[in-house]
Amino acid sequence: MQVHKSIFALVALTVIFSCTRRNVSSTVGSTSQVESRIESILSQMTLAEKIGQMNQVSAGGDVNNYVDALRKGQIGSILNEVDPVKINEFQRLAVEESRLGIPLLVSRDVIHGFHTIFPIPLGLAATFDPALTEEGARVAAIEATAQGIRWTFSPMLDIARDPRWGRIAEGSGEDPYLDARMAEAMVHGYQGRTADSTSMAACIKHFVGYGAAEGGRDYNSTFLTERQLRNIYLPPFEAAVKAGAMTLMTSFNDNDGVPSTGNTFVVKDVLRDEWGFDGLVVTDWNSMGEMINHGFGVDRKDVAQKAVNAGVDMDMMTFGFVSHLEELVKSGAVKEKTIDNAVRNILRVKILLGLFENPYINVEAAKAVQYAPEHLASARKTVEESVILLKNDGILPLNGTPRILVTGPLANAPHDQLGTWAFDGEKSHTVTPLKTLQERFPGRVEYVPGLTFSREKRSGFADVVAAAKRADVVLVFLGEEAILSGEAHSLADLNLKGSQSELLAALKTAGKPIVATVIAGRPLTIERDLPNVDAMLYSFHPGTMGGPALANLIFGDVNPSGKAPITFLRTVGQAPLYYAHNMTGRPYNGETLLDDIPAEAGQTSLGNTSYYLDYGAYPLFPFGYGLSYTTFAYSCIGLDKDTYKADDTISISFTLSNTGAYDGTEVVQVYIRDLVGSITRPVKELKAFERINLKSGESRTLTIQIPVQELAFTGLDGIKKVEPGEFRLWVAGDSASGTPVSFTII
Ligand code: GLC
Fold it and tell me: Quick check: is 292 in a domain?
């Protein structure tokens, strides 16, 4: 008997359910109607059926392998099936051949696009454009939901400050404020502002602190204090919960000895009790089972008990819940009300997505929306805004129809251009730089790859050098294959792999202008390569439309506006190095560097401050850095007051001028420093940013407002609040520029 249909008949009022917190409105009833519907379904369920909802299975392959489990209601969600015909069959078995007919949650890692692949999330962050990022997430949801995917394991909110960590590619970089704005945008984009068949539940991950893996080695332990969690790693998750994220995923790492999947403090005390999160908490892939490896549990029964009692609702691929929860309830080790709460959270997502009313998809219609022209246009625009101009000695933008040599391992790499976590991207749809340039300049492009993949080792590039001599300009595309970043892909050396640097050095001997574009999943250490090129663009794996976007930037149809969401190191030995660091008791003050140290220098002759004798204290490029074809000037920076109270709003006015020859967009950034606190505070923190378009020669006076409450932090007493004192404020184009103004909080 399918009881849910009769229950739905009881609440068939099409009252618009507006859950502002979720930004998801649905015709499934008001909040109270949804909750009473949950209770009605729950009251019909056996303990085994409840536990079945808590089980998520990776279901690629033959549906017949799951018929029995589906009929018994032992599966609540599947992942990794994307064939709409198979998805409909999975749903049919669950809805029409199980006792209660509860639909499945069909999930997938739709991380930066489904079929139309956008830049990897680090590239999305480089746009500093939440609105455009939301648009891209909406495109991903439209394409994915058309094929039956209604839950994505995205956005990833892991703050990352060590580029050795391969998953730095999947997040928004080093800054909590930027991370939070991008998280909100993606939650809104995936879930939509009004729930309908294109709504896809977001999953904020990995909760929490995963990006602080010691040594940048994936899955490694983290040692974050509660204050670091509360001031750096938790705020983006709190923002995403407030934005209405429907689900959350626990992380692999053990923090201070406690794996997140069994961590009552973060999952129950903070997430549930402090933030009031009533969404669905899912483990990462077998992260419950891995608590045995961690030495945090003795067996699957033990870790299942620890996970469910910590507040986890759904088990991804350990099968710990379906194997042991019934026994644990009967023994009293787990209370049935704990199970009930988990099932409530799962049913709530299914109801809010409208799955009970519309569990099936229209297979024919699925194809029509894939790669729609407006999707490709959105992806191209996102790439154009994500690319960072790191160097330009004046060669860019190119113009006219020069004879072009295209070379390098990423010039025509349709698979690698998509980047990591592009499961459903199809390389046949990738538009590479080579393809674009050949079409744009027929007969003017010579292609000599030099290297066919980023790790290739080769001695001598006579063929490439000869071709460069025949050209007016060299466009070289290099960087990282997709496999060299992403999950489990940490690197101890961040230099360009293989013989790429040697290729650049060889090209230099040809004496022609060289424009390099680095296409990678992380900020590589490219200091040694910069002298061999006249200009460098940096594109975090751009996805399907990388070619047209890069051509538009190189030839000036679009002026670069991307800004670094992560610090670019001079050498990997500087890791971790990030802009929002503490002052320390001995801040660097221009002390002597290696080559200037005299022989037999006295032990205390060099000064005693925090820096490297060989690489100093500064990065190659700071957070927020990015050039334009034009130049911008900041002036008349002022505050509406010089003293504020905790409930005031700071109003910052300034004039921004485009002082160069091209129209362009500047990402204005506002940083604030709290000079003295009950704990030591960062030298500055990003508190606002805004993209401002100005025509060449145009000046505009602008105002940015920041509530003083944005300066609150968790101090020595463990209470989040604004502390009075002296502050500095910068308005600038990156985290290392600008002259501060002062204000006081009383
Ligand atoms: C992976 C990742 C996680 C992903 C999940 C499902 O191991 O850690 O981000 O969503 O498994 O593919």
Answer: no
Q: What is the extent of the structural domain holding 597?
A: 578-618
Give this prediction's pTM. Answer: 0.96
Query: pLDDT tens digits for 385-437?
Result: 999 999 999 999 999 999 999 999 999 999 999 999 999 999 999 999 999 99
Whether 609 and 714 share a structural domain: no
Using a 6 Å cutoff on CB, does residue 80 contact ligand 1? Answer: no
315 is catalytic: no
Ligand 1 centroid to Cα of residue 286, in Å, is 9
C-alpha 257 – ligand 1 centre gap (Å): 22
Domain match, 404 and 536 both: yes
**Distance (Å, rounded) from C-alpha 639 to C-alpha 633?**
18
CA within 13 Å, CB half, 585: 1
Q: From atom 12 of ligand 1, which residue's Cα is the shortest distance away?
A: 109
pLDDT, tens only, 28-80: 788 899 999 999 999 999 999 999 999 999 997 789 999 999 999 999 999 99
* 109, 284, 315, 534: the active-site residue: 284
522 and 592 assigned to the same domain: no
415 and 517 assigned to the same domain: yes
Verify that 522 and 411 share a domain, yes or no.
yes
Which single residue is written with the structure tokens 């590039």? Answer: 461
**Residue 704: strand, helix, or coil:** strand
Number of domains forming the structure of the chain: 3
